[in-house]
Structures are given as C-alpha cells and as structure tokens.
Amino acid sequence: MKDFKQIIAEEIVKVTDIEKGKILENLEVPKDPSNGDYAFPCFLLAKELKKAPAMIANDLQVKILENLKTNNENTEIANVIAINGFLNFKLNKQKIAEEVIKKFDEQKENFGSQKQENPKNIVIDYSAPNIAKPFHIGHLRSTVIGGALYNIYKYLGYNTVGINHLGDYGTQFGKLIEGYKRWGTEYDIDENPIDQLTKIYIRINNLCKEDENVLNACRDNFKKLEDGDSYCVEIWHKFIDLSLKEFNKVYEILGSKFDSWNGESFYSDKMHEVIELLEKSGKLEESEGAKVVNLEEKDIPPCLIIKSNGSTTYATRDLAAILFRARTYDFDKALYVTSYEQALHFKQVFETAKYLGLDEKYTKGLKHVPFGMVLSKEGKMSTREGKIIKLENLLNEAISKSKAIIEEKNPSLENKEEVAKKVGVGAVIFNDLSNSRIKDEIFDWDTMLNFNGETGPYVQYICVRAKSVLEKAGYIPETTTVDSSKLNDEDSKKIISILYTFNQTLQNVTEKEEPSILARYLINLAEQFSSFYNNCHILCEDKQLQDARLYLTYMVKVVLEKGLNLLGIQVPDKM
C-alpha cells in the first residue's frame, strides 16, 4: 500500500533542510480530523529559522502548494493548510480508497499484517500466576495484555514466543509446606485445592507474624526444597499439579495459549552459573551474610542474589531465565508484562544482567511492560489477607449476566450459551484493554459488565451488524465491480481513512507495548460504521453504489473481527 506519510515527508524535504526520517517521526494525526489527515509541527524549526511556528507554517504552505501546482504528478495531496503553527495535509480520499481496496483485495482476512524478510525474535513473559494461590483478577491484566501483544507481534511477522513464567518456587512454598505439616489433615486439598491451600497460606502467614521461629522454619523448608529434600519435593509437586488443573480452567475460558510453561523452578539448576558469572565479574559482594550486586552507581538499591541462609531469590531465577532465553530464543526483545509494583525489581535485574557476559543486544532488548493494579473499592487486593476476587468467578458471572441480557433482548437466538460466553468474556477482556495499561483499575461489577457505550459487546454488535448486511445482500462484490469514486460521502471517506491506518495502528501498539491503541481504534471504526449504516442506504437500487458500499461493509467486518481476535476476543455470528 502506498505510504502517504512518505509522500508528505518528501514534499516537506523539498522546501526545508530537515532529514526525511525526522519528518516521518514527527508527522502526526490531528485530533480534529477536519484539520487534515496528517500534521507537521513547525515549532521544530523555530529555533533554527528564528521565526514563530505560525509564520513558518504559512511560508511552507505557500512553497509546497506552489510545488504541487507546478508538479501535477503528485495527486495524492489534495490540500495543505497552515493552522496554529502546524502544517496540515489533506489527502485525496479517492486515492486512499483505491489503495485500501487494492491492498485489501490482496490480503483479505490478513489485511494489516506484514511479512518480514528478517523477522526479529520477540519473547513475551506474561500471566505467571503463583502456584497454590487463587488466579484472581490481578492476573487478568498480565494475561490479556501479554496475550494481545503476542498476537499482534505475530500478526506483524515477528517470531514470537509466549512464556508463562509460573510462580512455582520461592519462600512462600516454605510457608505452605510448614502449614501443611502442621494442619494438612484438617484440609481436603484434593477436593478444592486452591481454596484450601489459600486458607493454609493465610493461617501460616498470620502465625509467622506472631512467631519469628515459625518464619525461620518456613525459610528452612524452602532451603530443604532447594536441596532436594524428598518430603518437601513431594508435597511441592502435589501443590503444582493441583494448581495447574485449576489454572487451565481459566485459560480455557479466556482462550489463552503459551509456547512455554517454564516457571521459576525450571531455573533451579541454572542459578549456579549465574552466581559463578557474577563472581567472575567481581560484582558479587558480601552484605550481612548475604550476597548482593552493588548498583549504587546507577542509584539503584543492591540486587540480592543469595540470602543469608544460602537460598536463592526471585532475582537469581530471573537472571538465569535471561541467560536461558538469550541462548534458546536469540531474542531481540524480551518483554516482561507485570504490575508496576515490580518496576524496581526489573531495574535491578536488568542492570545486573549486564554482568553476565551477554552480548549487548540481549541486555538492550530487556523491557519491563508495567501495568496498573486492579483495586477493589476497599483498596489493594492481597492473598495474604484473603482480599481477592477470583478470575474464574468473575468470568462465569460475566457469562451469566450476558446470557440474561440475551434472554431479555433476543430470546429466540440460537446457541445462547456460546454467544453468552463470547460476549461476557469479551466484555471483561475489552474493559481491561481499552484503557491505558499503566492506569490503576478500580474493580466494579457494574462498570465491568456495562454493555452500552465504548465496550467490547458494542464493537462485537457492530461487527455482527456488518455480517448481517452481507448476509442479507447474499454476496460480496468482486473488486473489479467496485468503483471507489462512489464512496464520496463523508461517512465513507472517514471509514476509508480509518481502514488505511490499521497496519500503522498495530505498529504503534508494538512500539509502545500498548494494546489500548488497538482497542480505541476499534471503537472509532465501530462508531464510524454505525454512522455510515444510519446515514447511507447500503442495499439500494443503484448497483454500482451498492457494490461499493457492500465492499466497504465487508472490509469493516473483517477489520473489526480481526482486531478483536488480536485482542483475544471472539465474535459471535449473531447477537
């Protein structure tokens, strides 16, 4: 597809001394579409030209318009307007329509995707629930943000690896083992494993607060686990097996899949090399009986590698994982999708990784992708305190509420259970992904399951409406019969402009690791199609006009469905 940004940049290059790359970096889409399709901020030239941005924009407008008038070959740019220090470009909508239809005809269901000659390797670490703890709504964010990024990178032609780095190791297992030793016979962990293990965990945690000796016994249990004590290892394996059965129920509802399930324990025999490499680098030092890497020069607290009792840490395992992933996947980028509460941890780990003797490519590719917490109305959720909302319960409640709405609005609908699942789960996922990931979310049933406005069910409904139009027409026109000049009404032009930016939108998601960019794009496209549907007769007596509008409807349906799929949301055939 023709890159109109390139065409605009070339026109600006002709009348300035700015490098084309810098122009492309700074070309933006105006907030008010009536101003144009792209805008260039002239304040970038103010210092060099010693003029006000508004004067620069006016001067460049005159020069570019003169060039366009002289050179009739460039018909892609319809107009150039100077507005408040910005140079605004209006594109020839018919040219865009021709390009979009041509590209769509080539790619069809893969519209917006890319094939890369030398695809980069992207590793994404996401979801990562803790064994023996409830899979609560705090884990939803990591699971759906990571899943969306995984899908989008893959769609854009990257070699993508999704890793579920299970929390299956660490001091908390020392606590659980101690609790199980003391009270195991009181709880039926086979019948309701997560609930029963959570009760044990809360109980032992409270006892640890009261008695330092109990806490020390828990630490000793984890050390025994690391050393291969048969009793501790047997109980630990039981906790893992029972937990994974429960977790997979949630993953089945969400449709989540992973390429690797290597959790923390996978790296238990790989940590020794990390310690050796850090000692070899001269960066590992004693500190109150423990071993740490001093990061004072980076103004970061030291990274704890070995505790005073000789056991390893979360950081040690993360460093072993970096070594393994660099060697196994040769990653160009390794993303860690976790809450912003872990920001300091990853700063420490990423800085310490520089002392492992890895190629700079790998340490530069490490990136924390933080997200805000999911808070209840009472505040932060905590497994230790028992303040949690289970994700499985939330999803089942969403499905149940969706079914009730369907029963009320469309009682004769077939496959209600299947539709309710797609709508309910879609509502929960879209609610999470439609806001900037860094923002905290206040968990509220009413907000989460609101089926009006800018929601997942709304986008699904518009997609189903487009499917319905195509079904009623009984055909999808061949592109040879589509006359793009017929799409000259304002609603059609706006839709074409939005479709043109689909690939760029996906690229923006990967540049900022921000799935909400795609979610907001889909809301925009759905709203614009709704306006088109209400204002324009799609099925009409004019066959040429009908074919053009039907093909536009087909493109919208494909992009809405593909966009939702990339976010991890399925679309029912009817609603």
Written account of the structure:
The chain has 575 residues and is an alpha/beta fold. It has 3 domains: 4-91, Gyrase A, domain 2, CATH 3.30.1360.70; 126-269 and 317-380, Rossmann fold (3-Layer(aba) Sandwich), CATH 3.40.50.620; 391-566, Isoleucyl-tRNA Synthetase, Domain 1 (Orthogonal Bundle), CATH 1.10.730.10. It contains 22 helices and 13 strands. The protein has helices at residues 4-15, 20-26, 46-49, 53-70, 93-107, 137-155, 171-183, 193-210, 212-226, 230-254, 271-281, 314-329, 343-353, 360-365, 391-409, 416-433, 445-448, 456-473, 490-500, 502-512, 516-535, 543-566; strands at 38-41, 77-83, 86-91, 121-125, 159-163, 284-287, 290-293, 303-306, 333-339, 366-371, 374-376, 379-380, 441-442. The strands form 4 sheets. A 4-stranded parallel β-sheet has the order 5-4-9-10, sandwiched between helices. A hairpin with a 2-residue loop joins strand 11 (374-376) and strand 12. The model has no long low-confidence stretch (mean pLDDT 92).
